[in-house]
Amino acid sequence: MSYTYKKSKINIFRIIWDRMLRKVRETFIAQMDSNKMDKLLELGLKAMSLLFLLCPEYRENIKGFKGKVAFNTVDGQLGATASFGRFLHLPVLRVRKTAVSNANVTITFSDGQAMASFITEPSPDIISGILDNKLNFTGNMNYILRFVFLAMDIPEVLGIRTRLPDIR
Amino acid sequence: MYEHIDKVRNILKSLSKSSMKSQFPILDDLLTRHYHAKAEVDIERALFMTRYYKDRTNSKKPEALKRAESIHRYLSNRKICFHDNNFLGGACTSKELGAPLYPEYFGITIWPELHTISTRTDNPQILSEKDADILNKEIFPYWMDRTINERVRPIEPERQALFDKFIFYILSKAGTISHTTPYYELVLKKGVREIIEEAKKREAAEEDSKKKIFYKTMQVAMEGVLQYARNIVREAKIAAAGETDTDKKENLLAIAEVLSNVPENPPRNFREALNAVWISQVAVLAENSNMAMSPGRLDQILYPYFIKDYNGGTLTIEDAIRYCGSFWLKMADNVNLVPETAERMFGGAGAVPAITLGGVDWNGDDAVNELTYILLKVTELLPIRDPNVNARYYSGVNTKDYRDEVSRVILSTKAIPAFFNDIENIKTMQNQNISLEDARDYSVIGCVELGASGKQYSASSSVFMMLHTVLYMALHEGRSPATGNKTIGVKTKALKDMKSYKSVWDAYKAQLEWLVDNAVHLNNSYGRKHQEYLATPLLSCFFDGTMESGKDLIDGGAIYNSSGVTHIGFADVADSLAAIKDICFNKDNDDISLKLEDFIAIVDADFNGEDKIYNYVKNIAPKYGRDISANSIAGKMVEINYDLYNSRQNYRGGNYQLAYWTMTNHAGYGRISPATPNGRKAKEVFSSGITPVSQVNTDVTTAYKSVAQLPSNKISNAYALNMKYTPISVNPESIKKFSALIEGFMKSGGQQVQYNIQDYKTLKDAKENPDKYPDLLVRVSGYSAYFKSLNEAMKDEIILRSQYNMGTGEFVSIEQE
Questions:
Q1: Residue A96 C-alpha, separation from nearest chain B C-alpha, in angstroms
Q2: Contact residues, chain B, for A155 at CB < 8 Å
Q3: C-beta atoms of A140 and B164 within 8 A
Q4: Cβ contacts (< 8 Å) between A63 and chain B: which residues?
């Protein structure tokens, strides 16, 4: 299943979506090209947030969901938080630039590359990541499973269809 | 008695697989359907349970009663299906081959795969978009804070973190309350109605509030079973009314007739008895996931019904085969739901419900009867993955004819059943304070474990301990491959400070003790959370002792209350320790002598560029299965495991019983593990069960004796010994030879052995051309699997297993062939 801005019925939303997404994509690609990982996660989460905002069908996936999924790296250099909640009556995703301490689950990556792979992989495999020592987590694993399900469409939304090493 | 058996055997001789189509067309059709059935995810139970609990989020009702009511609701309202012409009524799921989803356990782990599970490469399980949507929006969100894993995590964050890493230990309580043998004989003797009435009386007379609730839960859950049977009767009659095929119509009406009586009342005949056992199994699986929920000694509990009908002329041998064959195929109507990574790592396993045949009775007399032979014939006619069929054998009590017949079936099917040695197994059970009578009445659980039938809640797969990780930690100051440079276990000596083999052994022992301690604590915490949230009123109804004690099975209501531990990497670790001793601490070794730190550095570098050392370790260093020194280390490993667990208790006040079987874990874990000092390179598979490492050049007698010399009184849950023989034609001479080999192994003290009668060439071809071998059945490590459905690592492991020539007993190397 994949969700795109085309599912948004209102024209003005399409235009806004197009512009915002283009900006996110450009920044995302530029980050990868420059080998900088610090904004990748944040940009990926922003793309997800936009998709929730503009696509009612995608938004249905987080109806009633309250929870925080935090991300960081072992060295503490990179971090972000996906905070699922509600704005007025709408389910939304808010993106924070740091890993908060009170998250339901915190995923810690071995390094920026592992984090980037996780974001750009259409179907990230948590268990393999753990077995390969690429990631670790503290907290409720089920929040990761839900997050991964939600994130599966993001690489496509960002125009990335393959694993990170192949597109670079 | 033996004359009657001979009469039955003569009839059975005329029935063969080649004439299945003409002699048993319905079974033949069911078998074909089974081979072609595609597994489908079944969410029916999950949806009923979720909606029940959601409606009672703020209810103050005791959790045990909620559990009973939720099971009652599911059983009373579930869809009734007649997928085929099976002679028995009732099905585990609403699908022809269902993978039921248990959201309170591991079901939620397929969340990321909701849109891909139907199309994944390894053993796809079909899930409709509609069901995926229900899981995503209704079922999983409810359970995400309520799975048993997440209920345990806050009280055991550190030990749970070790579990999450997978490489230290895994605990099956996160996924099931199972791995046991229910007492289905009780339903045959009393019927469900009498059990309910007894619980009702005890509830009324009981003053203890917890016991009162328990008796209530028994009634509520069992009433669900009766309603389920009534619903089948109703639907069977409706289906029969609309059926134009006379045979199908008659069968549906017969099912309705059978289930009008059982399981509510004791069965009046063999077919009713068999269906009562099947409905009981279905009911238990409505409550608990199917991980080796094993029906036990069917040839014993069904025998009175068989012989009455047979002698009365109302049942022919052919009828018995039809009904029992139907039961076999019903047992195979469900598989476990497995996420993709687990499938890649451990794929191909069935649910492994074990059936036990033969052996002795509680009095020590020969228990082999006519039905034993009939069920062996069914095993031969229907060589399917589940049920896992096991033949007990008591040398000197059971006849040679029986041993020969089991041997013949193994040679004919090339895989099943497995052989169990009653003499050693009864002794080792007695060593665990199980009475002689109860030990004699043991049945096999899942892969190989032993339990006093219907009296022992074994939970026999509670802990999988990774011995290779223990060794790695011992050689790296408590660090593990999953923790990088961080010491996670005991900070044992640095390699340079280990000046003797004893110091290596002490480090191994220290790390093992640390991991055992963590695993036992965590297992007990899981058990206590089960007690809080996952009462088992239905399963408790099928155990001796629960009614009398007024306690649920998970509260210690059974007569025996053990937990089981099994071990991965046994032979590789034994060989590794032997290699270290030989290379680093053996002054007489003139070939290779290295400092421990230098040798382990070579191992850690995956023997890269060190061919001489690698070849020595691989071919010359002592090996368990061949050399006395390594065998001795293997024996000491068994001893130390026993000593460590024997001093610990489980949460039900029972003990920990040890086993050595690995399912497919030895292959999966091998694929993610670094090299070991025995010459196993990184990512190569470990040896299975208790089996010596593959391709060690030795004769079959030495291999058998090496295993048989292990202290079996300290292996109370038995082991899986995998042996592979070059195929031979099945004739009286080959049967005699094979049967004698088994007798020899048993007499020298072996506990269990299972076979693949396959050669390297065929197995390699089956890997290359799976379509040529769609039904190729192999023994894995305690259970059977279709070769095509195993993951690549497991296929390679089975191909690589040492092959022996049955005639000469000589080892046939893979290169040689």
A1: 23
A2: none
A3: no
A4: 137
Interchain contact, A1 vs B167, CB within 8 Å? no
Q: What is the CATH number of domain A5-155?
A: 3.30.1050.10
Which of B144, B166, B481 shows the shortest C-beta gap to A142? B144
CA-nearest of B381, B149, B350 to B790 is B350
Using DSSP's 3-state secondary structure scheme, residue A139 falls into strand
Q: Which of B729, B733, B731, B752 is nearest to B742 (CA)?
A: B752
Q: What is the 3-state secondary structure (H, E, C) of B664-714?
A: CHHHHHHHCCCCECCCECCCCCCCCCCCCCCCCCCCHHHHHHHHHCCCHHH
B676 closest CA partner among B475, B510, B465, B464: B475
DSSP B233: H
What is the SS3 string spanning B717-737?
CCECCEEEECCCCCCHHHHHH
Helices (H) and strands (E) in chain B, counts: 35, 17
Residue B524: φ, ψ to 5°: -70, -35
Count Cβ atoms below 10 Å from residue B611 Cβ, excluding itself: 10
Question: Minimal Cα distance from A133: which residue of B?
Answer: B482
Total count of residues recorded for chain B: 817
Model pLDDT for residues B87-113, shown as the tens digit of each residue: 999 999 999 999 999 999 999 999 999
Query: Per DSSP, what are the bridge partners of residue B388?
Result: B354
Which chain B residues touch A135 with a CB distance below 8 Å?
none
Is residue B755 within 8 A of residue B779, CB to CB? The reply is yes
Q: What pTM value is reported for the model?
A: 0.95
Partner residue opposite B147 with nearest CB, options A132, A137, A142: A142
State the first-to-last Cα distance of chain B, in angstroms, to the nearest integer: 47
Task: Indicate the angle between helix axes B25-36 and B317-331, nearest 10 degrees.
Answer: 10
Residue B481: its chain A contacts at CB < 8 A? 133
Q: Measured at the alpha carbon of residue B206, what is the angle toward residues B205 and B209, in degrees to the nearest 5?
A: 145
pLDDT in tens, chain A (168 residues): 445 545 555 567 677 777 877 887 787 777 777 767 777 888 889 889 988 888 888 899 999 999 999 999 999 999 999 999 999 889 999 999 999 999 999 999 999 888 888 887 777 888 888 888 889 999 999 999 999 999 987 877 776 654 333 322
Q: Which residues contact B680 (CB under 8 A, 6 or more apart)?
A: B572, B576, B670, B686, B693
Query: Which residue of A2, A138, A142, A144 is the best one to mutate when testing the B interface, meaning the one whose CB has the most B CBs within 10 A?
Result: A142
Q: What is the residue whose two structure tokens read 């995400």? A: B144
Q: What does the alpha-carbon distance between residue B720 and residue B448 come to, in Å, rounded to a whole number?
A: 6
Burial grade of B60 (CB within 10 A; 0-12, 13-18, 19 or more):
exposed
User: For chain B, how big is the Rg over CA atoms in Å?
Assistant: 26
Chain A contacts of B129, Cβ < 8 Å? 1
- CB-based contact B700:B811 (threshold 8 Å): yes
What is the full DSSP assignment across B238-268?
HHHHT--SHHHHHHHHHHHHHHHHTTTS--S
Complete DSSP assignment for B136-178: IIIIHHHHTTTSHHHHHGGG-HHHHHHHHTSSSEEEGGGT-S-
Residue type, B133: D
